[in-house]
Amino acid sequence: MEQLKQLVGKKILGTTLYFLVILTIIFSLWVGINVFKINQLIEDIELKTLDLRFKLPLQTVKHSDDIIILAIDDNSLEILGDELGRWPWTREIHGVVAKGLIEAGARAVVFDLMFIGYQKGFEEYDLKLAETLSKLDKVYIAMNFDKREESNPIEIIKAIEDLAVPTQNFSKLDLEDVTFTNCRAILPELLKNTKQIGIINHSRDNDSISRRNALLFLYHDKYYPYLALRVAMDVIKDRMEKPFKELIITEDNYLIIGDTNVPLQSDGKMLVNWYGPSQTYTYIPIWKVIKSINQIQAGDPPVLDLEKTFKNKIILIGATASSLFDIKTTPFSRVHPGVEFQATVLNNIITGDFLTRAPWYLNLLICLILFILTGICVLKIRSGLITFCITLSITFAYLFIASLVFNYLFVWIDVVYPILVISITFTTMYVIKYVI
User: Fold this and answer.
1) How many angstroms separate the CA atoms of 313 and 307, rounded?
2) Residue-level pLDDT at 113
3) What is the pTM of this model?
4) Residues of the chain falling short of pLDDT 70
5) Is the dihedral angle over the CA atoms 414, 418, 420, 423 positive or is it negative?
6) Is the peptide bond prior to 88 cis by the omega test (within 30 degrees of 0)?
């Protein structure tokens, strides 16, 4: 009887010790998260694991061949230097390019460029650009917002407000980061005569890497689409029998664009699902298009067969020359052309290749399962070496499963917290079992 009491007493003491240690760890984590803000450090590490997952050879998602990038690159600046002069070129040349591409059968021409203010001494060329673009239906241009005090005259504000898209918002998204008070207005003639205008404000995470971006922006209590979204809206309308009339943000944070549901994060931004490093899309230097248009007009054989190259394609025109500085930092590179960011977001929307992050309760459930598995492993297996090897196998198996889920289901499940749970559980129970 005395031995039984001692055995029961030891078991109660051991169980109590386990619980006290686990409670101490939980309390320490709570202090670390709420007092020392280690959750931000953990989130920063988690973002790095996200970057790594994009680079794994398991990736299955492929970019659309219907998107082409027309690059204002270093070669174009040099080759066209005698003909067009130094950058910035007079703007009528952009109208010439857009008109030539539309005549060649392009599905859409998207300028990831902002035509702000008149070029002093060349105002007539600005007016020629506006006149040309006003006659073309499938040409899109860019504009951006900022948070300065409103500086635009009332007639410009009214023209900007005409660009808003009807949107019903049933969500509780925190849209403070995408709410603006001022607009960097483009040429008044473009604003008044062209409705295919999108916003190009850009988002970066704390480490300056671009992993997500807003699709809608608030200005004067109205919603304005990101440039890629503005193009995607028309692409989606064209493929639907009954075109949609408004956008809807649902209670569970989905942006409904006709037949397409885009998952949004709590701040209203969309995670970008990357297809590969820079130059993943087909790049064509703009000098070839300009030379070809001139050759066709002169009756000479063109450098590039425009119809064969661009028919039914979506063409994004942007600066990639190193001297023009339109670069972004992405999971793949610190020097990624900004126009390819637009292309990737557009591709995600029109093909439905959306990346979503697993909800907190699913990540918590994963941590609980890993805690139980690791705990059972330590408690039930006598050999410390075998226990360590099995725990290591659990860790690598989880990392492999997380990679498969990411690359085949496009779901981002956390890696850092689960690995911490495995490590802390193993270490704590091992010390209690074999040391204490």
Assistant:
1) 10
2) 94
3) 0.89
4) 1-23, 25-37, 433-436
5) negative
6) yes
270's tokens: 């969309």
Instruction: Give the separation between CA 53 and CA 50, rounded to whole angstroms.
Output: 5
Spatial CB neighbours of 258, under 8 Å, sequence gap ≥ 6? 233, 236, 237, 240, 243, 244
Return the structure tokens found at 139.
């040409």
Backbone phi, psi, residue 60, to 5°: -110, -20
Other C-beta atoms within 10 Å of 414: how many?
Answer: 22
Give the model's pLDDT for residue 16.
66
